[in-house]
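Collaborator request, handled under Task 6.
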Amino acid sequence: MKQPAFLNNPAIRFMMLFILLFAIFYSFNIFFFGITNPGGNYNAFLAEHLNYIAALRQVLLDCSVMILKWLGYAAIDNNSELLVAGKGTLAIVYSCLGLGLISFFSAFVLAYPSPLHSKLVFLFSGIFVIEFLNVIRFVLLAIFWSKKANRIVDHHTIFNILLYIIIAFSLYIWIKRNDKLTGADVQN
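Structure tokens returned to the collaborator:
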């Protein structure tokens, strides 16, 4: 069976693979979140033994508490909220975890035609940086955010815009670096 001509174009192949991977990653995260929360199609085994979403939330909370304690604040968590003495509570819900950003970033890196080693190093370091910045956001919100004040600022949107800018810049640098390396290999 002959392959359609448009699939011979690397840019079209990349875009199709990127969109497909993003849809799979993003949808799987939402699906998994749904089946690991009580109600509906709840799966107790997955919720208790393979719940990477709850594990990610706990790691982010533990890191945030640790940094807050280093900064001299009395902080604890209860598996879904960050509590800081004298500051209040910060609820860490699904949309706070950065799984949409990670889905986008992962799909782009995996779809882009570059060596596997480069993809894996950039993928894992990029996810680490995304979540590190997320922890910094939680720490700053825990210290400075006030729900009582009437603020028009949506920290989720601001964080997402900032992270997408950082991701775009880092992808640009990574692509340029990989293109130079690939070009040098072709010439030799």
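The cover message to the collaborator said: "Confidence is low (pLDDT under 50) at residues 184-188. Helices lie at 10-35, 44-49, 52-70, 99-111, 116-144, 155-187. Please let us know whether this matches your experimental observations."
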